[in-house]
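Researcher: Here's my situation. A collaborator sent me these components and asked whether they could plausibly form a single complex. I don't have experimental data yet, so a predicted model of the whole assembly would be a useful starting point for our discussion.
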Amino acid sequence: MLEVSLRHGFGGFSLDAAFTAAPEGVTALFGPSGCGKSTILKAVAGLLRPDEGRIALDGEVLLDTAQRVMLPPERRHFGLVFQEARLFPHMNVATNLRYGLRRATSGATGPSFDEVLALLGIEPLLDRRPARLSGGERQRVALGRALLMRPRLLLMDEPLAALDAARRAEILPFLARLRDVARLPILYVTHALDEVDALADRLVLMEAGKVLAAGTVEELTARTDLPLATRRDAGVVIPCIIASHEPERGLTRFRFAGGELLAPLQTEPPGTRLRLRLRARDVSIALAPPGDISVQNVLPAKLAAIAPTGSPHEVFLHLALGETTMLARITRDALDRLGLVPGAEVWAMIKSVTFDHARGG
Amino acid sequence: MMQLSAEEWQAVRLSLDVASRSVLVSLLPAIGIAWLLTRGRFPGRFLLDAFVHLPLVVPPVVVGWALLMLFGVRGPIGAPLMEWFGIRLVFSTDGAALATAVMSFPLIVRAVRLGLEQVDPGLEAAASTLGAGPIDRFLTVTLPLMSPGILAGAVTAFAAGLGEFGAVITFASNIPGETQTLPLAIYAATQTPGGEATAGRLALISFGLAMCGLILAEMIGRHMHRLLGRF
C-alpha cells in the first residue's frame, strides 16, 4: 500500500494532501488543472522535495522530512509516464525500451521484453528514432519503457492529455490492458472523467491543493455533495457483467448488483466485466410502469434520499436498486407534481448508458 | 602552386600542434565550468561567469603577462612545477598551448553552454526515474545530447587557437620551432626585409585553415543534430 501525506507551498499556492493507494489497481488523482495533483506525483517519484511530508510504499519509507529521509528517484524504482513521452531522442525505440530494463533491480520481475512489445503493439517501431514516431506511438513506447524497468509502482502524469481524441482512443485500451497485466499499484493523474471511468478503481478527488474525498469510483460517483455532481455528465458508475446477447433484437443484457439492463448489442463475449456510467440526466422517474415507451430500461427502485443540485430548480434523487445506488436529476416541479418523498417506490427509466473499456478477469 | 620553405612548414605544423593541445587541455574543464554555470546554484556564480569570460575582453598581452607572473619559473605555480616535475612552461611549446588554451577557453565554455542549454532537463528526470544515478544520467543522456555544443566549441577553439598572438608572444616568446606559430611567423616575416612573400603565403594558409575550421564545425553540428534525431 502506498501512503502519501504532503504539505508544500509555492507562489501563493499551498498543497496539503494525504491519501493511500491500494496495493493493486488504479488510483486516480482527479481534479481541475492546477489543483496540485501533478505536484503530488512528482513528490512520489522523488523529483520534487516537498516542504513537509511522508511517503511510504508497503511500509518502506521513501520520504520523511521529519527524519530527513529522501530517496532519490533512481533508488525508488517507480515507473513514471509523463504527459510528453520524454523518450531519449538520440536512442532508437529498442534502446529506449531497454534503458530501464538494464537498470532494473536484479530480483524484480515483470513482463518480458517480448511480452511488452506484444502488449503495446510496438514491435514494428523498434528501429525508429522517437522523432519519427506519432504522438500515440511515442506514448506507447513510453509506457513500455516504464513497464520494462520493473517498477514497484507505476505513476502516470496525464499520459493522454497531450494527444488528440483519436490518439486517446487508440491508447486507452492499451492502458486498460496494461493495468490488467501489470499487477502493480498505479497512481494515475488526470482531469478527464472518461479516463477515470475507463481505468480507475479508486478515486482521490482534489481541489485547490486539498483532498476532497477518496474512495472507490462507485462510491464517489454516487455522492451528490462533491464537485463531480455538478458536471453535465454526472452520474453513477456501476460495475456489471455481460449476461447474454440477443442479436435478433440487437441488444445485450447486462447484470449488475441491483438488476439487469439492456443496451445496444456489444461485441464482447458474455461474462465480460464492464463498467457503465448512468448519467443522472438520463434517468427519469415514473410512479407507475409506463406503457408504450421507447426506453428499454424501466426498473423498480426505492427513493432513498433527495439532495440539492447546484440549481435551485432541480434536485438529485438517490435511488436504491438492491445494493446499487443510482442518481436521477429531475426538476423541483416534477418532484412536487409526483409528490415524491424518501421511501417512495418508483420506476426508474434509464434512457441511455455509456460504456468504458472491458476489464479483464 | 605555393612552395613553402622548411621554416614555414614548421610554423604551420607548430600552430596545428599548439591549437590541438590547447583544445585537449581546456575541453574537460570547459565542460565542468559550463555545467556549473548552467545548472549550478551557488553564490558567486555570477563572478565565476565574469572571470571565465575575462580573456575575451582583457588585452591578450595582459593575459600573457598574468600567465608569466603565475607560471614563470619564479611564479607561485611555475616554481613548484619546475622544482617538483621539471616542467618549464615559459618559452616552450607547452607554454604556447597553455596561453592559447586560456585565450580560447571562453569560446569553448560558451559553445558547451549553448549545447547544454538545449538539453531538456525533463529527459534527465526521466532517466533518474528509470534508475540512472547522476553520473550514469550525465554519461548516457546529458553528454550525448550536448555533444554538438562540445564539438562546435572544440572546432571553433581550434580554429581560433591557430591564430592566437598576443598571449603567446608575451608568455612563450617567439622562438622558431618552439613557440613560433603561424601568426608569430607572419609577424616575424613582416619585420624582416624581403619577408613579404613569406608573410603572404602564411597569411593565405591562416585564412584557409580558419575557413576549413568554421565549415567543419558547421558540418559536424548538422550531422550531430541529425544523429540525435533533432531534425
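Model: Some features of this prediction you could bring to your collaborator: The mean pLDDT of chain B is 89. Residues 6-39 of chain B form the longest helix (34 residues).
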